[in-house]
Amino acid sequence: MRKEVWFGLSIMAMVVIGVFSMMPPPSQMTNGHLGLLMLAMIVVAIMLGFPTAFTLMGMGTTFTFLFYRSQNPGAAVDLTLNLMVQRAYAVMNNDVLIAVPLFVFMGYLVERANLIERLFKGLHLATSRIPGSLAVATIVTCAVFSTATGIIGAVVTLMGLLAFPAMLKAGYNVKLAAGSVTAGGTLGILIPPSVLLILYGATAGVSVVKLYAGAFFPGLILAGLYVGSVILYAKINPRGAPPLSAEDRRVPLPEFAQVITRGGRSNVMTGLIAALKGPRNAAVPLGMLLKHLVIALLPALAAALVMGSVYLSLTAPDEELPEGLVAMGSWAESQEQTTTAGGLQAPETDEGATETPSAAAPGAPEAELPAAAALRKPVPTGFWVTLGVIAGGLAIFYGVFSFVRLEIFKMLLGSFFPLAMLILGVLGTIIVGLATPTEAAAMGSFGGFVLAAAYRRLNLRMIKESVYLTAKTSAMVCWLFVGSSIFAAAFALLGGQEIINLWVISMDLTPVQFMLLAQVIIFLLGWPLEWTEIIVIFMPIFLPLLAHFNIDPLFFGLLVALNLQTAFLSPPVAMAAFYLKGVAPSHVTLNQIFLGMLPFMAIQVFMLALLYLFPAIGLWLPDQVYR
Fold first, then answer.
1. On the CB side of 369, how many CA atoms lie within 13 Å of its CA?
2. CA-to-CA distance for 301 and 304, rounded, in angstroms?
3. Using CA atoms, how far apart are residues 501 and 491, in angstroms rounded to an integer?
4. What is the mean pLDDT of residues 586-599?
5. d(CA 546, CA 369)
6. Backbone dihedral region of 343: left (phi > 0), alpha (psi from -120 to 50 degrees) or beta?
7. What is the pLDDT of residues 345-398, one digit of tens each?
8. What string of DSSP letters covers 125-144?
9. Lowest-pLDDT range of 15-29, 506-520, 522-536, 537-551
10. Is the dihedral of CA 9, 10, 16, 19 positive or negative?
């Protein structure tokens, strides 16, 4: 029998023996102990391979019937069926879950737009002079693509077909190559728009918008730590991540660029401007020169647009009424205060005479607002410092902007920037409050249609495949929620939640100790279970205890999302490893992939500790945007 089977059976045996050893004798067993037994049986059944959703529904319904039968045998069937219907309807009535099929549909559309090959090629050429450039490009590509799709298996599989053989061919260490693909592919669990955060928000009753804002910086920092560790490894061990050869770094120039650079002008700006006004444009069409000049100026135009928007936002005048003007409705309110039962009483003047408001004479000039109302606020010093830094960076950028870099920039313009704009458009509208997650997901799906059409991949077959896979994934998620809702109701009905609460509270833990205990349990559960099962089964057990320990559910959710990445990277049920093994060359063993994932797991644990020690990493952005 294989080692993995023995390991799984031993874990199941330990679970069952541990539960029965803690149970009281049958004569003293209560309904709460039946709830704990149900929880243990759920874990064992899932590890045996039973479908999670229907196992949850079956166990929950069975134990609910046993409870009602002990209380009221005649009405047990009706009460059980009523509970099932109510919990299923509550899930169907949850508006948050509408975003799940829309984000999944966006992911399948983007995946089939065939952008990942162009994205990887452009990024590995753009980072060719960085140590470990292929691994760096792999992690960045995985991060961008998994953020756009959120489908971990698809990202790991595609990068296993594209980047993994390229790294092995370049002489990269097998473990480094495997770890880069698997760790980079799982970043979509944390970086928004993450389906995990939607499910956690629906389970915990936490705003998905705040979860997205809170997970933004931890996800970026974790991706940066991955990249930094690869660069450090390549510097220490160049043989494990050799630099690209001159042939691999070569970028062929188009004919017009070869004509311009014959005179030794390799800089884009000087070469294009000289070609516009000099003899070099004889063999190059004017339209071609203007087109590439506009492309070259795009970074400067984007910087000017961003800084102009920031300037208008920082210097916008306060919306206060000038002196002498009365807010709309104020005069009416003052008149209401003088209204008597007999009618309207006009206000008295100082001489005791009465006045009534009169309209301005026809043709009279309107009252002019004071000049101070049109004045903008002074510009903060930080704006000018930032502007100077950006101007200096642009000067350096255009000083070294050669025609080779222009071709790489065009590759990124056709692969990286469309995805980046789609991601920023979806996340930006959510974070700044312009759209709900559901509305942003709908816009993202439309953006996926546009990308697929722009790259000539949109056809009826592709749409049918995307719709089918979306329906399949969404049905799985919805059935999981229905099953978990029935299971949670049965668990609470039996009193299992109360027993766990009393047990944890009796341990007299501090909030720090409880947090460590919870994260260790989630980390260990990530070995035999997937993150969906942990969210729907075990989160409802932890959540009622957060109020006792005065822990913010938003912060706890960020820690859980970061921790649950280990469910894809921790053996023996490391799904990312099996995704990669399915497309890897035959000489690459599963043990090599597991060993390659371990350093990245250590980075995840370090990031988890960093987030706990400095909660502002995850809470600063939600506090700033939603105060």
1. 9
2. 5
3. 13
4. 88
5. 54
6. left
7. 444 444 444 444 444 444 444 444 444 445 777 888 888 898 899 999 999 988
8. HHTTTSTTHHHHHHHHHHHH
9. 15-29
10. negative
CA distance 436 to 431: 9
CA nearest to 560, candidates 204, 311, 250: 204
d(CA 534, CA 559): 14
- DSSP H helices, 315-402, are 330-337, 381-399
Amino acid at 549: F
CB-based burial label for 467 (10 Å; 0-12, 13-18, 19+): middle
Angle at 570 between CA 578 and CA 151, to 5 degrees: 55
The separation between the first and the last C-alpha atoms of the chain, rounded to the nearest angstrom, is 58
CA-nearest of 595, 519, 520, 569 to 186 is 569
Q: Which residue has the tokens 């090959």?
A: 117
CA distances from 255 to 251, 260, 275 (A): 13, 9, 14
The secondary structure of residue 72, as a DSSP letter, is -
Amino acid at 551: I
- Please check whether residue 192 is in contact with residue 539, taking contact to mean a CB–CB distance below 8 angstroms: no
Reported in sequence order, the residue ranges of 439-592 that DSSP labels E, i.e. its strands, are none
Lowest mean pLDDT across 178-187, 242-251, 415-424, 565-574: 565-574
DSSP string, 214-262: HHHHHHHHHHHHHHHHHHHHHHH-TTTSPPPPHHHH--PPPHHHHHHHT
Q: Where are the domains of the chain?
A: 267-315+380-395
CA 200 to chain centre: 13
* Ramachandran angles phi, psi of 251, nearest 5°: -115, 115
CA distance 114 to 415: 9
The Cα–Cα gap between 525 and 448 comes to 35
What six digits make up the tokens of 321? 């009424």
Query: What is residue 572's DSSP assignment?
Result: S
Of 161, 251, 266, residue with least CA distance to 580: 161
CB-side neighbour CA atoms (13 Å) of 504: 22
- pTM metric for this prediction: 0.76
Q: Reduced to 3 DSSP states, what percent helix, strand and coil does the chain have, rounded to the nearest 5?
A: 75, 0, 25
Closest to 198 measured CA to CA, from 77, 295, 329, 106: 106
Tell me how crowded residue 595 is: count the other CB atoms within 10 A of its CB.
Answer: 15
267 by DSSP, 3-state: which? strand
Among 194, 197, 193, residue whose Cα is nearest residue 206: 197
Q: Quick one: tokens of 30?
A: 């209560």
Treating both helix axes as pointing N-terminal to C-terminal, what angle do 152-169 and 133-149 enclose, rounded to 10 degrees?
A: 170
Question: For the chain, what is the radius of gyration of the CA atoms?
Answer: 31
Sign for the CA dihedral angle at 397, 401, 406, 411 comes to: negative
